[in-house]
Amino acid sequence: MSPAKPNCDSCPVKLHGAFAAVTREDMREMARGRTVNTYKKRSTIFYEGNPSMGLFCVFSGKVKIFKHGADGHLQISRLAKPGDLLGYRALLAGEPYAATAEVIEDATICFLDRALAFKILRQNADLTLGILKRVCQDLRVAERRALDLIQKPVVQRVAGLLLELQRDFGRPTPAGVRLDIDLTREEMAQMAGTTAESLIRTLSDFKQKGLVDLRDHCVFIKSQAGIERLIPLES
User: Fold this and answer.
1) Residue 7 carries which DSSP code?
2) What mean pLDDT is predicted for residues 61-67?
3) Over the stretch 14-36, which tens digit does the pLDDT of each residue have?
4) Is the Cβ–Cβ distance between 212 and 225 less than 8 Å?
5) Which residues contact 67 (CB under 8 A, 6 or more apart)?
6) 65: which strand partners?
7) Comparing 71 with 182, which gets the higher pLDDT?
8) Using an 8 Å Cβ cutoff, are 104 and 64 in contact?
9) Residue 234: is its pLDDT beyond 60?
10) Under a CB-based contact definition with an 8 Å cutoff, are residues 76 and 190 in contact?
């Protein structure tokens, strides 16, 4: 059975994301002009270095955005969930994609080609400002992570990652807050800027201290306050 076709009026991008301020008429125009694609886990939406073709909107599923560093190591810059946009920086800058987008859970993605995306942006100043704000936020996060790699030890970086994942993907359960995202230990290490071996050792240490539980390949946050105490307050 094929997944239901996204309804723009009830889409998470419209309800909670960048398109919240877009008029109903423009939403209908997007619905007529968009394409809807389904992606299986581990398939690629676009590749680093390819020309920008338009704007992607995540209707369901989760996506990782990553690039390869000068040393060849892979670095995950962010995770996208329903309601998030992809490819907006390359679209606005008129540049090739600076990273690769890969599906980590089966996903349904809507796509607006360049002509339609720019038409909607020109007609909606609030939407344009919202996307520019997102670009600025991405830059701030990238700068913070670059400083973290230099200034913070692995324990603090892993603690910060767990809190970030809990905020975006946490689901309360009797066993604790489950990180409801299918990430391998290697992918978590890439986000924390460390090796898989160091990440596993750190998570095991957190488990011994009662901060997390590890079961069925999932991470459960047992003590948010305890994890927060591992990270010094920013001055």
Assistant:
1) P
2) 94
3) 666 677 777 778 888 888 889 99
4) no
5) 48, 74, 75, 77, 98, 99, 100
6) 78, 101
7) 182
8) yes
9) no
10) yes
Neighbours of 74 (CB within 10 A): 14
Question: What is the rounded CA–CA span in Å between residue 101 and residue 78?
Answer: 10
3-state secondary structure of 187: helix
Encoding tokens for residue 110? 């809507």
For residue 220, is it left (φ>0), alpha (ψ between -120 and 50) or beta? beta
The number of beta carbons lying within 10 Å of the beta carbon of residue 163 is: 17
Nearest-angstrom CA–CA distance, 130 and 94: 18
Structure tokens at 159: 């603690």
What DSSP assignment string belongs to 126-173? HHHHHHHHHHHHHHHHHHHHHHHHHHS-HHHHHHHHHHHHHHHHEEEE
Map tokens 């071996």 to a residue.
197
